Amino acid sequence: MKLLVSCIPYDGGRSGISVYVREVVNALAAQGHELTLLCENGVTVDGRFPKIEAPRWTRRAALSMLWHLVMLPRWIRRHRAEFDGFVICAANRRVCMSYPLPTAATVHDLANFHIPGKYSPLRMFYLAHILPHFAKKAQRLVAVSGATKADMVRFWRCRDEEVTVLYNGLSGGEGRTSSRSTGSILYISRVEHPGKNHVRLIEAYGRLPRAVAEAHPLVIAGADWKDADAVHDAARSSPNADFIRFTGFVASGDMPRLWNEAGFYVFPSLFEGFGLSLVEAMAKGIPCACSENGSLGEIAADVAITFDPYDVSSIASALERLTGEPETDRRARIERGLAHAKKFSWPDHAAGLARLVAETAEEPARLFGIPVARVTERAAVERIVHMAKNPKPSGAAFVATLNVDFVSNAVGGWPFKANDELWRYLRGADFVTADGMPIVLLSKMLGRPLPERVTGADMVPAICRRFAEEGLSVYVLGGTQPALDEAFAKMAIPSLRVAGLDPAFVKLDVDQPEIIDRINAARPDILFVALGNPKQELWMGRNASRLHVPVMIGIGGTFNFIAGRVGRAPRWMQKCGMEWIFRIYQEPGRLWRRYAFGLVKYSWLSLIHLLGGYRR
Length: 616
Fold this sequence. Notes:
With 616 residues, this protein is of the alpha/beta class. The chain is built from 25 helices and 21 strands. It folds into three domains: 2-165, Rossmann fold, CATH 3.40.50.2000; 184-340, 3-Layer(aba) Sandwich (Rossmann fold); 379-610, no CATH class. 44% of the residues lie in helices and 15% in strands. 47% of the residues are buried.
């Protein structure tokens, strides 16, 4: 696939998200995908791939968030034909207002909900109240751990089925496969207070006997970040200050030396979405201790010694146990770690992202809970032909052409009532197309764009032509005999097999088995139901199980259009979604109240949808 990958933010290549971006890009490329990288201004993530840079004015974080949120979707919409999908590598930091491409968005953690004051008040407000609303519009949400998914369900109010867990992979390779009982206690993380919990780790280390501290220096590797001075001050005042070493940022080429010097690994962070370095330490045969909360306890499984990161005594006890563990226990812990680390794979993670994007491209857009197929008119006709030639085991396949009138009749939202029966039939339909530009426009605003309007009036002649080519038959229920005769005469398809024209008067409140018997006796391959909405959909829903017909579709007044008894709006009005104006002009007395009410209700329901309603 041709994928656009958002590598914003990249944090100068010095954070866990930076590692994630590099690993995902490499894995996707290795699997044959064509990548275009979206990067911050002046930043190159990987020179092998074409890149698109954000404008220079987005170098400040707040402006970068604004550009990614508002301007980027407009750019993607203009260049949509160039890509098959979109991958957002850090959707807990950057999201879009809408998603014109099939999108998989990865969320690493919701630490802002667990650590008060982690960021500035303005950023905390953005992360808690603005970003979640727009992140949930992405077609596929990915969590890097079960703990992150649980937080998304709890704090973002995502439904369980809306979030897919794809564990991060193993970074840095396996390296050595044995560990010494001597060596340093290593912690790799940006030096940030209070989130990364360096201060409590240093306090706990200060409680170790001096002989133990001398044998096992505490090595803190990572660049200084927010409030790093508090960490350095704590180290200077520690009783074991002589054995605490800060390396600063360590380039990838120097990491092997750091790992080789380590006898143990500790990860005391107050909260993590995953914990990449914990898995890497396990894969290198280094015994580990880590926080028991968040994803760290989940990733640690039965391999690492866990502790309460808020309790200095608990951390100190874990360090003493880790450094003083008997050799047989230490060896068993190492073996469990080596086996556990093999469960984490970047190729598997990247393949999962690509699979989610591909599934999104094929699945219908859900509008008001109704599955609307992402098809062109030609593809819709071919699908109906396929359904006619491959009938369901029982009952007729239900096809609906969704327009504003359907929504107005079926869907509710205060203060408007719903027709729950009609809504249930539409949500459970086998195939739904977008018969109306307002439906297509709403799909684009929701980031689930439908390719084009697919109307019953245009499809019926095309279906009849294809059925004639395939030797399939049609049956029409509803309409008037003169209109049906004129319509078939105008279509002029002599080879079409017409199994029946049945202008019967259909009553919803009366069982009319003779109608069902006539249709079943004719054994058509498709049933056109021309009763008008909502009557035709209610009739089809109630009688689907009794019909021995492969497929049925409600077509309203389509045969009146084909016969020329009712004129259609000019093509430009149809494309602009203004056909309703033409229809009111034709029949003002009959239609103006219905259309006015329908448009007002549809606009209100659309607003509810845009604000996050109808997600079931």
